[in-house]
Specification:
The protein has 6 helices and 8 strands; from the N terminus they run αβαβαββααβαβββ. The protein is α/β, with parallel strands linked by helices and 189 residues long. Strands 1, 2, 3, 4, 5, 6, 7 and 8 form an 8-stranded mixed β-sheet that branches. Helix 2 links the parallel strand 1 and strand 2. The relative contact order is 0.17.
């Protein structure tokens, strides 16, 4: 039987909804399945982290939202899931090549707006093992709702250009919802 806290509803708030709720999950989970460790950066309340860990993939979930991380810790009992409170604008204290996969779900446009995208993508390239996968989920630049204003949404060439500057390679994204794309990028082996 789960402890009573584990049955609490997931926290929510402005900007705290998860893409997990409204996209085709299968291609995201398949791209990261089997990685020796997945970093879920900007994990929010951890829906993706929980799904990956329940499938047996070790996950390090990183965010600065304490309420979401507290809920995630309550849900993670017995799963291969660790939680870390950290700001993605600061260096992550992990060794080079520590991750086989990284997930950025609805995070990159925030990092671009704050001028932190290039630093984080360079850090992700350092943390990925050779051949590792970076999965980026982002809203496409089509009229809302849902999602952020059009002015902050990224075009596929913008996302691929940022990734290329960090030494990551990939192709055009695939649609995983009517207005959301999945980019699969790799660190060269």
């Amino acid at each position: 039987m789960q402890p009573p806290e584990a049955s609490l509803a997931p926290p929510s708030g402005p900007g705290k909804h998860s893409s997990y709720e409204f996209v085709d999950r299968a291609p995201v989970l398949a791209a990261l399945a089997g990685a020796r460790c997945v970093l879920d950066l900007g994990c929010g309340r951890g829906d993706w982290s929980l799904a990956l860990a329940r499938a047996g993939t070790p996950v390090l979930a990183v965010d600065r939202w304490r309420q979401g991380l507290r809920w995630l810790r309550q849900q993670a009992g017995g799963l291969p899931l660790r939680v870390c409170e950290a700001d993605l604008g600061a260096p992550l204290p992990l060794p080079d090549g520590a991750a086989g996969g990284v997930l950025l779900s609805l995070v990159l446009h925030h990092l671009v707006a704050s001028g932190k995208a290039q630093d984080l993508l360079a850090q992700i390239a350092r943390l990925l093992a050779p051949g590792g996968v970076l999965a980026i989920i982002e809203f496409l630049p089509v009229p809302p709702p849902p999602g952020p204003p059009l002015a902050v949404r990224l075009t596929p060439p913008q996302v691929l250009g940022l990734a290329s500057e960090a030494g990551l390679t990939g192709a055009l994204p695939r649609s995983i919802a009517a207005h959301v794309a999945l980019y699969l990028l790799r660190k060269p082996a």
